Amino acid sequence: MQLQVARIGKPHGIRGEVTVQVLTDAPAERFVAGTEFVVEPVSSGPLTVRSARWNKDILLLGFEEVADRNAAELIRGAKLFIETEDLDEDDDEGWYEHELLGLQARVGSQVVGKVAALNTMPAQDLLVVETGDGKEILIPFVDEIVPEVNIEAGYILITPPAGLFEINDDAEPAEGSAE
Fold this sequence. Notes:
Helices cover 10% and strands 40% of the residues. By secondary structure, the chain is mainly β. 20% of the residues are buried.
């Protein structure tokens, strides 16, 4: 199985470097010279890392196959993947998005929705839970709010703080609004 670790952004400079949206929590390990990525669309790859450096909070990658800014523009928007068989199976620190998608989201024994996505953010990750009526609720993916993830049984347990499920619900206009 393949795991997406980045999405290529705009070119940076004239030597073929690109900005990347990092989708892994271990960029120092994933983006080292010589690493080859499977690329989507396939016509853009495979790509082999030539250089990796940080410019403020933005990761810049250079690829052996991309010589200049024009070539870098052609791979803009491409997704970078690694094979999950290459990953260390001893890592019990977290879950990958593909493991979480479709799991039931439960509060106690009540099913409140299913996991639709995992948004990796700088401060903390957010689970996107789709409720039965199609609403998306953002759940901070921290131990205090999601104390149990049971991949085998197909669910996550949520202990939401008061108002968590209502905070994203702006479907009802506030009283006195001009709608």
